[in-house]
Design a protein that fits this description.
7 strands; seven-stranded mixed β-sheet; alpha+beta; Nucleoside Triphosphate Pyrophosphohydrolase
């Protein structure tokens, strides 16, 4: 990759959007490393000069075809992946923002191999999901009950 995301010299800033609509949360199946094959909060890298909210709105449109309004941060965490020699292969600082669904039909695109709405029961039963994603969604559904 030429964008500096693999074996970076600095951490990369990324953003996710936690979009809930009709008691379901929007998730994408990652099509690229480091989380290839896992269901996750949709999002991606923040571009130079772009606010977190602008990045979230752009990324969700690119990955899913949905128009959203990004809100306040809900969770900030790091994702660090090392290779077999201990070198940092990926290092992201990720800020997940609350987001409001505005319009559109889910159509996976860009680096998402799939995208769809999940109920809590579907999230709880899905084995291909990272622990940080599952914990955030669990907290989200518990707070809304």
């Amino acid at each position: 990759m030429s964008d500096g995301s693999v074996y970076p010299d600095l951490p990369r800033v990324a953003v996710g959007a936690v979009v809930v609509h009709d008691d379901r949360v929007l998730l994408v199946r990652r099509g690229k490393a480091p989380a290839r094959g896992l269901w996750a909060i949709p999002g991606g890298s923040v571009r130079l000069g772009e606010s977190l909210r602008q990045a979230a709105e752009r990324e969700i449109l690119e990955e899913t075809g949905l128009t959203i309004r990004a809100g306040d941060p809900m969770l900030t965490f790091e994702s660090i992946h090392r290779d077999d020699d201990g070198r940092v292969r990926f290092h992201y600082v990720i800020v997940d923002l609350a987001a409001e669904y505005l319009a559109g039909e889910v159509q996976p695109a860009d680096d998402a191999s799939d995208a769809r709405w999940f109920s809590w029961a579907e999230v709880a039963a899905e084995p291909e999901m990272g622990p940080a994603t599952r914990a955030l969604i669990r907290r989200l559904f518990l707070e809304s009950m």
